[in-house]
Amino acid sequence: MRWIRRVGRVLWALALASAVPFVAAQPVKTEHVTAELVAQASAVQPGQAVQIGLRLQHIPHWHTYWRNPGDSGLPTTLSWTLPDGGSASDIQWPAPQRLPLGPLVNYGYEGELLLPLSYTAPANAQPGSTLRLQAAATWLVCRDICIPENATLNLALPVLAAGATPSPTAHADLFARTAVRQAKPLQGWRASLQHAGPELLLSLDREAVAGPDDARPVVHVFPYAEQLIEPARHELYRTPSGYALRMRLQDNAKLPASFDGIVVVQGAGSPSPWGAVNAEFAAPVSAVAAIALPAGAQRIDNPAPAQLAGGSATLGLWAALVLALVGGMVLNLMPCVFPVLSIKLIGLAQQSSDKRALRTHVLAYSSGVVLSFVALAAVLLALRAAGGAVGWGFQLQEPGVVFVLALLFFAIGLNLMGAFEFGNLLPQGLAGWRAQNPAADAFATGVLAVVAASPCTAPFMGAALGFALTQSATLALAVFAALGVGMALPYAVLALAPGWRDRLPRPGAWMLHLKQGLAFPMFATVVWLIWVLGLQAGIDGAAKALLALVGLGFAIWLGTVLRRRAVAGGLTLAAAVLLAWSWPAAMPPAQAAPAEATVWRPYNAAAAQALVDQGQPVFVDFTAAWCVSCQVNKRLVLDTSATQADFSAAKVTLMRADWTLRDAEITAALARLGRNGVPVYVLMRPGKEPMLLPEVLTAGLVRDALASL
Questions:
Q1: In what order do the strands lie in the sheet with 130-142?
Q2: Nearest-angstrom CA–CA distance, 542 and 544
């Protein structure tokens, strides 16, 4: 009888082996996904559990979604039909990846995916029988467009007798790899969340003192709750005790008592400070008056900007340096800078042909330009590291800075008209030092040129600066330095190749008349700055600034009439009192300038995306009152009757994102587009990637963009 039982076991094993190919039924193949139900083991025992799962193989560049899809999308679902007495758990979701698409960020998967779960067989299942499982699977698969798909999938599991060991299937390795991507409990760390209004700060701190963490992992946080945070706002910092992540609450969203989710270290081979590649956390929520990063916090993440038509997602360092160099050269032709450069060229035409003096002059001017750009970049990077939502031109979002610039350009205009000479108003010692150091004037002019250039964004600059501000401080400063070199280069070439001066008329009255004529662009700049100030600080702020201009003109006139150095102290004191009284403050947001009575709607990211999802194209004008390029494009192209007719014919909704005053939502939207300054023009197209237009617009460019709808 013993040998009969042995033969029976062999025949049973052969039967199981022949049953293995039937564990997984035939896959279902759609246009974008191949789906099938698979199991980790070849059989199951009565009352025992086995790992099964939905295997999805996406075609390249298409994706499906996590349990929380992010800004848009739907999670994959399974609806089971099971043998009586059996049960299936919920999907045990592996960690997703961030999937940027235009201004949105979604959470999902590409390539091969396994969504595992646990199936428990009925306790009364008969050995030798086969359990047949059926699942109605639905998923949303997306690239430029999203397509809902579904399939009815089957899985047959043979039942083994108690004590028998099932063999692994061909998919066992996939289950093992997926297990690594599943989140483990966060151990040795403490998670907490602070919020001040919509601003959130998630802190991940060590529970015990540890040595310095030399790894700089790119860490992503995925909350379980849907429609809670803005996925695109994701700023990671390393702190003395661990890590901190700045996020932003969605409009009208309410925080639960505990903020739950997973923290993911990018890449399976990345060094993980958590002990596991992915960890699950639950952070208690507390309200604070204001969000503040811990002292010594350093920005360490490097989010990749969204891939856009004309965007900077694939921009490398050398390409960014070249674009910055070319953009700096073009910047000399922008309306902000051209008057300053013209003044320098007139002065250069009057200088001697001493090559040594010319080289010194050019070096001083170029140093002023390059160092000013680097200094401006350093301040910008420091503010961003401290959590400030700032970008290129950030200083002009402060009414006080606009006020000082108006006074400065007014004084320069009076100087060009011949109303006074700066040297006559300076103390004697300082005036003598200035006369002996002409390079100082050249350096100061370089600084002035950068100050005048700050409201402008030239072609090629946007992509370069967008790349720079997503890199380390060293690389960012290198890009800004290249921008300065590009801006200084045309003047240096003209100065060091002075043959062009031989073609000018002889020095004479024409130079004086031209110099006086250049005062009028300066006065026009003052008018524009006062207009900007009126939008920022109201009519009272603009009136005070105008009175300050009158006071400045009177002080200059008095100084030239009296011609006494002794009055300098009194004039300085009077000017200080006038400046203190006139200093403008930004209006509260509720009192900001009313929206223009045009077809342009105020920008709202959620509303724009909702329109696109409904098949409605949206054109967004990212602008600011202090941006000269923005105003030129607006008046010559965007607000013309011809362009408005083109928009109307294409049934495009128009939105205007006004960045005149600091606005964190607009700054975040620009960052998602790979930009950090204005102007930026984006056409959001249903079923297609958003299209970025150049910084300098023409009606033809707009028409070409609309033709792509």
A1: 77-81, 130-142, 146-158
A2: 5
- Strands 278-287, 184-185: pairing is parallel
Each residue's pLDDT tens digit, 43-53:
999 999 999 99
Instruction: Please give the structure tokens belonging to residue 596.
Output: 């223009």
CA 281 to each of CA 185, 187, 268, 366, 538: distance values in angstroms, whole numbers, following the listed order: 7, 9, 19, 53, 47
Q: Locate the DSSP E strands across 229-296.
A: 235-239, 242-248, 258-265, 278-287
Q: Comparing 314-318, 474-478, 501-505, 592-596, which segment has the lowest mean pLDDT?
A: 592-596
Q: Where are the alpha helices (DSSP H) in 355-508?
A: 355-385, 399-416, 422-425, 428-436, 438-453, 461-468, 473-496
Which among 481, 409, 488 is positioned nearest to 446, based on CA atoms?
488
What's the CA gap between 544 and 534, in Å, rounded? 10
Distances in Å between the alpha carbon of 465 and those of 20, 312, 377, 483, 490? 58, 10, 10, 9, 21
Region 358-374 average pLDDT: 85
Q: What does the alpha-carbon distance between residue 204 and residue 213 come to, in Å, rounded to a whole number?
A: 13
DSSP-derived letter for residue 63 is: B
Residue indicated by tokens 């939105």: 655
Tracing tokens 């002794």 back to the chain, one arrives at 566
The CA distance from 186 to 158, in Å, is 37
User: What is the distance between the alpha carbons of residues 200 and 256, in angstroms, rounded to a whole number?
Assistant: 13
Q: Residue 319, exposed/middle/buried by CB under 10 A (0-12, 13-18, 19+)?
A: middle
Count Cβ atoms below 10 Å from residue 702 Cβ, excluding itself: 24
Can you count the helices (H) and strands (E) in the chain? 19, 25
In what helix (H) or strand (E) does residue 156 lie, and over which residues does it extend? strand 146-158
Q: What is the DSSP letter of 23?
A: S
399 and 407 in contact (C-beta within 8 Å)? no
Please, what is the Cα angle at 643 between 639 and 648, to 5 degrees? 105
Length of the chain: 709
Encoding tokens for residue 209? Answer: 């003192």
Q: Tell me, what's the pLDDT at 304?
A: 42
In order, the DSSP letters of 453-488 are HTT---TTHHHHHHHHTTS-HHHHHHHHHHHHHHHH
Q: What is the CB-side half-sphere exposure of residue 498 using CA atoms within 13 A?
A: 18
Global pTM value: 0.47
Token pair for residue 661? 């005053």
H or E element: which one contains 581?
helix 567-582
Instruction: Return the number of other C-beta atoms located less than 10 Å from residue 452's C-beta.
Output: 25
Residue-wise pLDDT tens digits, 445-498: 788 778 777 666 656 666 666 666 656 677 778 888 888 898 888 878 777 776
Backbone angles phi, psi at 99, to 5 degrees: -120, 90
In DSSP terms, 691 is beta-bridged to 309, 683
Q: Which of 692, 688, 44 is nearest to 305 (CA)?
A: 692
pLDDT at 259 over 80: yes
